[in-house]
Design goal:
- The complex is a heterodimer of chains A (375) and B (348).
- Chain A has a single domain, classed as ABC transporter involved in vitamin B12 uptake, BtuC, CATH 1.10.3470.
- Chain A is 71% helix and 3% strand.
- Chain A has 14 helices and four strands.
- Chain A has a two-stranded antiparallel sheet with strand order 1-4.
- In chain A, helix 3 runs parallel beside helix 8 and helix 5 crosses helix 11.
- Chain A starts with 11 loop residues before the first helix and ends with a helix.
- Chain B has a single domain, classed as ABC transporter involved in vitamin B12 uptake, BtuC (Orthogonal Bundle), CATH 1.10.3470.
- Chain B has 14 helices and four strands.
- In chain B, helix 2 packs across helix 13 and helix 6 runs antiparallel to helix 11.
- Chain B starts with a helix and ends in a 6-residue tail after the last helix.
- Classes of the chains: A mainly alpha (375), B mainly alpha (348).
């Protein structure tokens, strides 16, 4: 109870340090790790370019629920699952190229809308603990996804292409080769600078999404969401349907995540049927938080700073682990630790500040009452 | 009649009833699919004795209103530390087992104290913070298992590797010391693990008795109404800290009993998701996010472990493929989602 003055009396410098502790720690870590890893500049830029094009879309999908005050949307995993189901179907039907990718998007959009709607309703029933619920929901839906893909496909849902089925005749194999759509978007508009391939089309898509989000903030719906995010009661009084606005924000986020996952997998070219989506939420959220976002505030620059910082760490950690300790495995564990640690730290910091602000508020009211009584 | 049924559903929750009926259905099916009933019963009892204490460890934190302990992994890590250190010291039999527990308690108190400090800072958001504290500590300890200077040839990688193995055998140290203690053999297939059950009963009794003492009662007051507790002059933060330490210590003991019965110490990423089945079992036993009792623990572990034992054997006999993992995921996580969406009370 003694540290209540956290936000009130601290000078701006300290406040800045606390607010941006995660990015600052990251920059320091990376500054040490890069020289130790011994990676060349060209390799480094190429890797970063790939990761920027691969991951930005998924992280951008997180922004809208933050606006609506629902925190980090751990249930974007549901969207990723929807995208994967679309990809399974187009691989089955052997439709390749851009048309295949578009078809995958077409198939998975209704699934993502449905899943998003479901997630929105569940999260509405768990107000105040959206994050932990969304997180558990992702785990739960992973089971349903397994039921659907591992036992339903080839059984109830017809799959004609036996090469993607397990030897037993039903259920999808652990890995699916997405050769048909591998990097079709990345290579749609070819541009090469030196040795580095620049995925122009992918970046255009990402830029479009950024424009869309900026525009969306200014629409009526976007404004409503921000009001809901600030205060549920105020929003309700001003005639906004809080529940459906919140559901809508999750639906949009889920659909975007679905596209993001398709974009991600077309870049990689192979799909781990049962694992590709599992870590989507954790890595996207960790990256966004590393970019300086918090549970209540996240914008587009946070996304790109986050991708660059977080994925630089991803690139260098195994090499640094090897250089320092002689074990690449060590770096592997280290980056998992950092992803989880960043989320733990940011969430704890946010919760702590929220509580302190609440206490301060209460104190203010108490003092006010006292002063009235004194009169 | 209709109202009565509605009442029952309201009281016990639809998922619990479905799961219970599913379980009854499985038991009825056993003779028809050619599975021995007594071996199934034996499996359930063994698993019950293995997991009981881990679930019990959730109780203190729920009682003081810290929510479901998704950071159970901290206790598990303390337990693993105790276990590997006791093996490093070449302690055998009951001495080894209790040395492991002693060391584990030492670490658990330290971890629990720090964890409690953190949870007091994030009141109201304990669960989501705890989840990630658990995850990050497991991954941090993965680094440590590689780097800590253990020497015992039974634990480190063979051929000059460094770091601990992913699984360490407890055979030759304290494997089954409790399980074989006063073991009762019924028929050819049922081995009743008296020692483990007794140990579980002892801890359950201690927890029950603790909540009858003055501190225990104060804790319950903190859990039911913080403002009231404050005005009674109870130090809320201190009570919460004690409950967190207690939970962590019991979890540490729980994982050692688990390893003793299971035969292996699982390191690295193995403990990552261990909190969820325990939480799900407690919820299945009728607990909610804000309320749990010993009764919930016993019923919950029994139901949950029965399902886990019965589904693979029964279902895979019917459809000739192993669905148990999928069912386990749906069941345990679905139960948790259900419980999280049920509470309307918002703590301030």
């Amino acid at each position: 109870m003694r540290k209540q003055s956290l936000t009130k009396t601290m000078n701006p410098g300290v406040l800045f340090l606390i607010n941006y502790a995660v990015p600052i720690i990251f920059i320091i870590l990376i500054a040490f790790a890069i020289p130790l890893s011994g990676l060349s500049g060209i390799y480094f830029i190429r890797e970063l370019m790939i990761r920027l094009s691969r991951n930005s879309f998924l992280i951008l999908a997180l922004l809208i629920p933050v606006m609506a005050g629902m925190g980090m949307n751990f249930s974007i995993v549901l969207g990723a699952m929807a995208g994967e189901i679309g990809l399974i179907f187009i691989t089955d039907w052997q439709i390749i190229g851009i048309s295949g990718m578009l078809l995958a998007i077409l198939i998975s959009t209704p699934i993502a809308v449905l899943l998003g709607y479901f997630a929105g309703i569940v999260l509405n029933r768990a107000k105040g603990r959206e994050m932990v619920t969304g997180f558990m929901l992702a785990f739960f839906m992973n089971g349903i996804y397994q039921l659907f893909v591992l036992f339903g496909m080839g059984n109830i849902i017809p799959i004609s292409n036996s090469s993607i089925l397990l030897p037993r005749g039903y259920g999808i194999r652990n890995t699916i080769n997405l050769l048909g759509i591998r990097q079709v978007l990345d290579k749609l508009i070819p541009l090469k600078i030196g040795d580095i391939l620049i995925p122009v089309a992918t970046f255009l898509v990402i830029a479009t999404l950024c424009v869309f989000i900026t525009w969306f903030r200014k629409t009526k719906l976007g404004q409503d969401m921000r009001t809901v995010g600030q205060d549920n009661e105020v929003a309700r009084l001003s005639g906004i349907n809080v529940e459906s606005t919140r559901v809508l924000s999750i639906v949009i986020s889920t659909v975007l995540a679905c596209y993001g996952q398709i974009l991600f997998l077309q870049n990689i070219g192979t799909m781990n049927t049962y694992q590709s989506h599992e870590q989507v939420g954790v890595f996207a959220i960790a990256a966004l938080l590393v970019g300086g976002a918090s549970v209540t505030k996240a914008n587009i620059p946070n996304v790109f700073i986050g991708v660059i910082l977080f994925h630089t760490m991803f690139v260098v950690a195994p090499r640094t682990g090897k250089a320092l300790m002689g074990q690449a495995q060590l770096g592997e564990y280290f980056r998992v630790f950092v992803s989880y640690g960043v989320i733990a730290f940011s969430l704890a910091l946010y919760a702590w500040r929220k509580r302190v602000e609440k206490e301060n508020e209460r104190k203010k009211i108490m003092n006010y009452r006292k002063s009235i009584l004194a009169k | 009649m209709k109202k009565k049924i509605q009442n029952i559903i309201e009281n016990y929750g639809l998922p619990r009833i479905i799961i219970f009926l599913f379980l009854v259905f499985l038991f009825i099916l056993t003779p028809f699919v050619g599975i021995r009933f007594d071996t199934s019963i034996n499996d359930v009892i063994v698993r019950f004795s293995m997991n009981g204490i881990l679930v019990l460890s959730l109780i203190p934190m729920v009682k003081t209103g810290c929510g479901l302990n998704f950071g159970l992994q901290l206790g598990i890590i303390a337990g693993i530390l105790g276990a590997v250190i006791s093996i490093e010291m070449e302690m055998i039999g009951f001495t080894g087992f209790f040395t492991a527990i002693g060391i584990a308690i030492f670490f658990a108190v330290i971890f629990g104290f720090l964890y409690g400090l953190l949870l007091n800072k994030v009141k109201g958001d304990e669960m989501v913070v705890a989840t990630y504290v658990g995850f990050s500590s497991v991954s941090f300890m993965s680094i440590m298992w590689l780097m800590l200077p253990f020497k015992s040839p039974n634990m480190i990688w063979a051929y000059g590797g460094s770091g601990l193995r992913t699984t360490i055998n407890t055979k030759g140290y304290w494997f089954h010391v409790l399980t074989d203690f006063l073991q009762i053999k019924i028929g050819n297939y049922i081995f009743f693990p008296t020692g483990t059950i007794l140990f579980f009963a002892l801890l359950t009794f201690l927890v029950w008795a603790f909540f009858k003492t003055k501190i225990g009662t104060a804790m319950i007051v903190v859990g039911s109404n913080t403002d009231y507790a404050n005005s009674c002059g109870i130090n809320v933060d201190k009570m919460r800290s004690i409950s967190v330490i207690l939970s962590t210590v019991i979890a540490a003991i729980g994982i050692i009993v688990y390893q003793e019965s299971f035969g292996f110490i699982q390191l690295y990423m193995a403990p990552l998701f261990m909190a969820f089945p325990a939480v799900a079992a407690l919820l299945l036993g009728g607990a909610t996010v804000g309320k749990a009792s010993i009764k919930n623990v016993i019923i919950g572990v029994f139901l949950f472990q029965s399902i886990l034992t019965m589904t693979p054997s029964v279902v895979s006999n019917i459809i000739k493929s192993d669905m148990s993992e999928t069912i386990r995921i749906i069941l345990s996580n679905g139960m948790i989602v259900y419980a999280l969406t049920r509470i309307t009370r918002v703590r301030t």
